[in-house]
Design a protein that fits this description.
With 118 residues, the chain is mainly beta. The protein has no helices and eleven strands. A hairpin with a 4-residue loop joins strand 7 and strand 8.
Length: 118
Amino acid sequence: QVQLVESGGGLVQAGGSLRLSCVASGSTISRYAMGWFRQAPGKERDFAAVISWSGGVTYYADSVKGRFRISRDNAKNTVYLQMNSLKPEDTAVYYCARQLDNGNYDSWGQGTLVTVSS
């Protein structure tokens, strides 16, 4: 069973940048697509970005397209989310998860809080 630990969140001003990391342990994630999700206060968890096992294919939610970039380093069993031009509406707890063959996600981490001040 893989365990995922997110880090890199914090408080940033609007227009700033943060890079989130998701480190996997217990098993390799190199054969899996990996996704980032976020949950704003009082809202449901939403999809943000996904990256294929090789890193060659990425897909983004419209709300983050052009500002966020997902990447991975399979040698380090780590997935990243570079977030630029942050907006107050990006404030949320950010989670990473492993995508299964059926398209569902599992092995959710505990999340890392990103707060964007205006």
